[in-house]
Amino acid sequence: MTDYQVLADGDALRRAVDILASGTGPIAVDVERASGYRYSQRAYLVQMYRRDAGVFLFDPPAIGEFQPLQAAIAGEEWVLHAASQDLPSLRELGLVPAVIFDTELAARLLGHDHVGLGAVVSDTLGITLAKEHSAADWSTRPLPQSWLEYAALDVEYLIDVRDALDAELADQDKEEFARQEFAAELARPPKPPRTDPWRRLSGLHSVRGRRAFAIARELWQSREAYAREVDVSPGRLVPDRSLIAAVRAEPASKPDLAALKDFTGRASRTQLDRWWEAIVRGRETTDLPLERVHGDGLPPVRAWRDRNPEADRRLKAAKPAVEEHASALGMPTENLLTPELLRRVAWQPPEPATADAVGDALTELGARRWQVAQTAHIIADAFVASVQAVEDAPEAAS
Q: Whole-prediction pTM value?
């Protein structure tokens, strides 16, 4: 078994940069975080592999500055699996590729039944990867050798997987589809902050009354601030169910809160003052949140028949047509066109709903050129058919 070493200082980084720069072909990149353990989504290990260079394991918290690495490899193609998960953590380190190849996304476009890294490696190379450390706490130091071996294997085969998938894309005439998808993934801006993120508290549906909602909000915000301060996953401090239990129990005093058996978590008692102060703030505030808020999204599809019957007919005509074409292309429907884009153009179509006009609407909503070329005419035809069906109905009835 290879004895993998973690590179943890600037000198080691510079030596690795020289070797990586002298390698050949694309560079496989992966990131290990401590999701579920830490508050942040920072990278705690960055793995890279390049042919004629080998595997390198970098310790981001110890190294800190990655500018020499970025300068050396920024212009090369980086190969990642599920790039959307790793790119934000890499950007925090100043590691930003110019071009990527996403092996998960390629597998989706090719219609692979399973697109996890282990499944794709098995499908393309016939090699089985052990995944027993995928949910490990990668902020652990020192990292066990078995974990490092697992991390190295995540990149060691990735270039061979990339080449196999690239050949499949060529065989299925999907190279341009993939190129546009990879570019879109790389250019995607960060998600904007959620409005009222505290409303995602698990179990909030069991809380009644605006005052109770205010207390839930204060508890969530207090936990969030403390989790950020100590860099621990919020649920490890006090689980959602414990916050909801405290809201529903309506403790009359801090000792009553401490005596609540359902109020658990490693910080439930050590930070008791913090939680009690949050409850008091919730009870005293005049800023009472609404129990229900209406977002700016579309109504649920089940409500369309009553609220917008024309849109309902358009969607019911277009959806199976798009699904049929996705099946013919051998890919999931959501990769051909996301359900949200289809719903939006069905709810408020252009007038007249020609293929060009539908294509323009889809482009404005964020569809890629290849998606527009594959679906705009199908959707436009379906919209016309939905109108024709209504016009023919009286004749059919008579």
A: 0.91
